[in-house]
Amino acid sequence: MLLHIHPDNPQPRHIKTVVERLKKGGVIIYPTDTIYGLGCDILEHKAIQKVCAMKGVDPKKAQLSFICSDLSHLSDYTKQLSTATYRVLKEYLPGPYTFILPASKLVPKILQSKKDTIGLRIPDNKIACAIIKELGRPILSASLPGEMIEDYTDPEIMYENFMHEVDIVIDGGIGSTVPSTVVDCTGDEFSIIRQGAGSFSLS
To answer: Angle formed by the axes of helices 126-135 and 12-23, to 10°?
Structure first.
């Protein structure tokens, strides 16, 4: 299904359609404030396995992120954060950043790696946030498989490419070609793993 959702005023009935599908183990392609992503419910193991199969990776080794709607979710899925770390998250989120943080025991076992970390994002995107608020928990997110980033900006092309592999492709407008900036917060000092759309100061 190709579902057109207004980027500034997401239609509640469409958001409900997406969430109902997620709760049934569906996989979606959805917009963020950077590139479009693959998403599923973090509690649906078969959906997680499907996303990982599309990416050709082991769930425990996959670079997957939790997409949250606000900072209140962070305390559920991360261990106790220092005041300094929390302050940085509050300054930069929502925005085009993925922060690597220590994972809590609430992270589903299928995703718990030896590193015991999780990537967390709060995108500045009304469609993504509306989906998460309606679902009541984060969604698992991954980048789309393949190298042709240009194909990931146009929802109609994404639908043509992935209509047999995902349940819903959301058309929320043309997406960006630049991914999020990834910042590792698990060491003594923050480090930028990937420079993306967001500028981040380490000083």
So the answer is: 60
